[in-house]
Amino acid sequence: xxxxxxxxxxxxxxxxxxxxxxxxxxxxxxxxxxxxxxxxxxxxxxxxxxxxxxxxxxxxxxxxxxxxxxxxxxxxxxxxxxxxxxxxxxxxxxxxxxxxxxxxxxxxxxxxxxxxxxxxxxxxxxxxxxxxxxxxxxxxxxxxxxxxxxxxxxxxxxxxxxxxxxxxxxxxxxxxxxxxxxxxxxxxxxxxxxxxxxxxxxxxxxxxxxxxxxxxxxxxxxxxxxxxxxxxxxxxxxxxxxxxxxxxxxxxxxxxxxxxxxxxxxxxxxxxxxxxxxxxxxxxxxxxxxxxxxxxxxxxxxxxxxxxxxxxxxxxxxxxxxxxxxxxxxxxxxxxxxxxxxxxxxxxxxxxxxxxxxxxxxxxxxxxxxxxxxxxxxxxxxxxxxxxxxxxxxxxxxxxxxxxxxxxxxxxxxxxxxxxxxxxxxxxxxxxxxxxxxxxxxxxxxxxxxxxxxxxxxxxxxxxxxxxxxxxxxxxxxxxxxxxxxxxxxxxxxxxxxxxxxxxxxxxxxxxxxxxxxxxxxxxxxxxxxxxxxxxxxxxxxxxxxxxxxxxxxxxxxxxxxxxxxxxxxxxxxxxxxxxxxxxxxxxxxxxxxxxxxxxxxxxxxxxxxxxxxxxxxxxx
Length: 621
Ligand code: ADP
Ligand code: MG
Prior knowledge:
Blueprint: E1 6-9, H1 12-22, H2 31-53, E2 66-71, E3 76-81, H3 88-94, H4 103-112, H5 116-126, E4 137-145, E5 152-157, E6 162-168, E7 174-181, H6 196-207, E8 214-218, E9 221-224, H7 241-252, E10 260-266, E11 272-278, E12 294-299, E13 302-305, E14 320-325, H8 334-339, H9 341-363, H10 368-381, H11 384-387, H12 392-398, E15 401-403, E16 410-411, H13 413-419, E17 426-431, H14 435-439, H15 445-449, E18 454-457, H16 460-468, E19 471-472, E20 475-479, H17 493-509, E21 514-519, E22 528-531, H18 539-547, E23 557-561, H19 566-578, H20 582-598, H21 606-620
Parallel strand pairs: 2-8, 12-14, 17-18, 17-20, 21-23
Antiparallel strand pairs: 1-6, 2-3, 3-7, 4-5, 4-7, 5-6, 8-9, 10-11, 11-14, 12-13, 15-16, 15-18, 19-20, 22-23
Helix pairs in contact: 2-6, 4-5, 9-10, 9-12, 17-19, 20-21
The structure holds adenosine-5'-diphosphate and magnesium ion.
């Protein structure tokens, strides 16, 4: 029975992507075939797995394969698989909408991108799958039947806003995608996708490693056109960089080359092969809740699962690739994997290998790969400083930070330590919201005067790990905005004596705002700054917690004064001469407000501050 066809609208994101594809400026149109073959291969993997798990399922798994047909007369190209297929609901959900997280961001970025090279790059990063068909076709017909169901589905669209969908009887299991090729490409040999020779070339180039047979029939003869060899099972000397790159595109659903390929093999009692990739760019969902991890698990060449979280820790979630283990059971579940000792061993080795690979990139003469890696993934990697105690040192080794040494360049900790001055005991850092506010912060003054380098940490995660990680190469991390600094103190006992009355009075006067007022050895040019106790939460972290909706008690910090500054000296003599007064109390309040502003903080009562300031300026006229 055939139901009448319904016309439905594409979801709006999907519609925008389709428009993009129809009017595509993407230079490499051939990639549409890679996407269709990649989907067909995934569908065969899924069917094999489902048939294995569910013995009741009425499906035929005898001859799983992909077929490509061309019809030069009708100008069609068909990619067919006898895989898992889709139900009507599946088609609406999977083809009619884009469920990929980060789609909205992608489209927004694309809109903002003006030049075409940059938009191509973005399109490549997003990895548009099925819709790539519309680069070469002006109409696409999809026929599909979900394995185990009797009901087939026919879907058709010209890519312009709507599609038709109807239920049809008697379809073979699996999916056929029929592309009605654009007439304008007929003239151009380069885009003659009805030519079997052309198709074979494309398959060889992009899909040779697909482990299912890809067949083509020419005349009477049917031949398999791919070698079907799993890349990770081939000896690495046999595999070209291009082949690795194309394989990466298949597993990662990315259209760009990876930054680095990592191979790992273990023989012996527990045999496995791993083929991992560091992508060239971060996925749009790297910091989203629904993000996935990118390693697939195979058992003896059989695909078992995507997104195998047991194989890669959270902080390395951007690593893509495949692990093929020989001795696992085919019906291993995620829960079992989490407990499995051998999987844990594999994971430990993979992690170490990824970290050591990055370290090698770092040592490379050409800084491009490491710099790209760090720019794209550094923020995620630093999460490992909190989560992965075992590899903390290895992670610290591959970190880079902005520093006061050279505003143009990031520094590794090793380089920092090598530059440390005689007598410098700590690795100094300052956290904050922006580079600029840190670099202008009064806290840095004495450190810069002494030539001590300070790391400039602006990622939210930096606020967390600096508290968790004690040191690097026996040097402790020390915030320049926390605790007492022991830069050889040139405040004399005499000064301390002189100031003690003022400090006691100020501590009481400003008790709403600070817990103590004391003299500072951090300052050279500013009159005052605010510092925390060693274990105090920093203002940025306090703000972050509040933004996350966490209740925070108000944290009082310490006001430090520069005894050498004329304003502070004047305050002292005025207090010594005339004792406390409302005018002095206001000056103290202004001093506190200035210190807060100088570190990029926000005033509790800006209106009051400006009013006080205006009054005092007036008096000075
Ligand atoms: P992706 O492969 O990155 O998920 P695609 O646009 O290529 O994105 O495909 C969208 C979804 O449509 C796939 O995830 C899959 O569920 C479904 N799909 C596409 N082609 C097939 C096919 N040949 N057989 C079964 N399902 C398919
Ligand atoms: Mg796909």
